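Lecture 7, part 2: worked example. A protein chain together with EPZ.
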Amino acid sequence: MPQPTSCFLSTDQLVITGGRPLQGTVRIGGAKNSVLKLMAAALLTQETVTLTNVPTISDVTTMANVISHLGVTVTQDGDELTINANKITRNEAPNELVTKMRASFNVLAPLLARCGETRVSLPGGCSIGKRGVDLHIKGLEALGAEIDIEHGMVVAKAQQLVGADIVFDLPSVGATENVMVAAVLANGMTRIANAAQEPEIMDLADFLNAMGADITGAGTSEITIHGVPQSALHGVRYAVMPDRIEAATYLIAGAATRGTVTVEGVRPAHLQAVLAKLTEAGCDITMPTPTALTISAPLRLEAQNITTLPYPGIPTDLQAPLMTLLATAEGSSVIKETIYENRFNHVGQLRRMAANIEQDGNTAIVTGVERLSGASVKATDLRAGAAMVIAGLMADGYTTIENLHHLDRGYEGLIGKIRQLGGTIERRMGGVDTSLAHSE
Ligand code: EPZ
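Predicted complex, written out as structure tokens:
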């Protein structure tokens, strides 16, 4: 069972001394939003799957717990995770595991396809929005599954899934993944129109194809899956794609502190929309190698208007970090969140740090101030937590950040990476500095 090298209670605090430009190079890890789906999809084959470039984050541990609960063997050795689903002894993912992490809902499709019947808890909403699963359900029903909701559980049955034409109302990442995975073992051909085009969908399709599936079009809005028999699927060794959101977070931190930061081990093509925005704001971005990006920023950046959109638009997962960056830009920026109805919890926290932000529904107007001022703030979700770290690094004086369990979910070795860039950051547990006791 994988264990993160650093697992802290939520009473921990990050203490940051700000005001110093970040300088240097960091290596980016495997993508959280891909590895979790690859782990779930590994249930499709009875043979052994080895994932490499797996980040040490608590969400990976949670997904390992979910699939171990199903009777699947999971072992970790460094950044390699080995999964063997030769036997699935339980076909039910209970509430306490699914509500902890929405991505657990991705076991629905492989369990249905492998076992013919499954019960998976509804994930429910979270702090950033309602986050329904109607599109997952409609898509699986179109493939012939019989689905009922009983006592908060999705109960899905299908002796044999059958290929179908599916048109999504909106390009949901999770629904595209669940339907694509289910269709791998369906009879005949499935076509998903208005599919999500995120690079993580392509990573999942590449992984499934390496395992013996027949998927084309992933990464575009139309995906075609020709069903294969279960015997056609085999074990595979597969490297998780780099985390584009982690990469952009460090680039934004470099720009926000007016420093020079290089991220290594990235796929620059995945970052085009955000790189274009950072360039418009006045940053200088170069590509020293095909898998590295360097950013440097002038003293004053220019305000930008930002609307979050499905890929290839600006990702909602970077909205909070970008808002923080723009908090000290020249002029007023208008930021519109279109993916989630409630992803502005960081606005109040940034205001505590002297940012000038007006919010009206899903729009925020950020009027640049000279400097942010260190304060005591909270991580209200994972990316809002990253935004607070960036704000702390930009600000005068000390910033303390609480609710670190959010950050632990998705940023591998955060403290070590910030220190490598010259940032002053430490983690205190119950008032005691534990940063030296853990290899971040
Ligand atoms: C994935 O969530 C990511 N999570 C999110 O990252 C990311 O913000 C999101 O995609 C959008 O890019 C993982 O990959 C684990 P969606 P997902 O289905 O799949 C609505 C992070 O910080 N919707 O594309 O849940 C939904 O409510 C996280 O790393 C329905 O209405 O996203 C939302 O408003 C946060 N019905 C919108 O679509 C459905 O059946 C987009 O959701 C499904 C979705």
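Confidence is low (pLDDT under 50) at residues 1-9, 431-440. The two ends are 19 Å apart (CA to CA). Keep this in mind for problem set question 3.
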